[in-house]
Amino acid sequence: MILYGNKDIKGIQRKTDPTQLLKKQNEILEIFRRSLALRGAYGIVGIARCFRVMDNNLDKTISIVEFQQACKDFKIQLTADDIIFIFNQFD
């Protein structure tokens, strides 16, 4: 489970160490980056190609649903919360 702010999923208030949170967020982004690299997405051209593949309805935008499906199709091993975190980083 990833904590955002000072509340966990149950809404219980607890202290979050900002350095641990930043470390976890960087780990999530690194997993995503490596997963794209394994599919040949190096540099802006490769990443653009992956995003075009994700765009199922061809509207030149990626919805959260398209992004979640692409992560599943690309076999990116992240939790649903992690995928939402990454999506929000790019959105």
Account of the protein in words:
The protein has 91 residues and is an all-alpha fold. It has a domain at 40-91. Helix content is 59%, strand content 0%. Helix 3 (64-73) packs across helix 4. The protein is globular. The model is unreliable at 1-13 (pLDDT under 50).
Which labels suit this protein?
91 residues, globular, disordered N terminus, 59% helix, mainly alpha
At a glance:
The chain is an all-alpha fold. The protein has helices spanning 18-38, 43-54, 64-73, 80-90.
Helix segment tally: 4
- By secondary-structure content and strand pairing, the structural class works out as mainly alpha
Alpha-carbon Rg, integer:
15 Å
**How would you describe the shape?**
globular
> What order do the SSEs take from the amino end to the carboxyl end, as H and E?
HHHH
Q: Report the β-strand fraction as a percent range.
A: under 5%
First-residue to last-residue Cα separation: 22 Å
What does the largest sheet look like?
none
Unreliable spans are 1-13
Q: Find the count of extended strands (DSSP E, 2+ residues).
A: 0
What is the overall pLDDT average?
77
Helix content: 55-70%
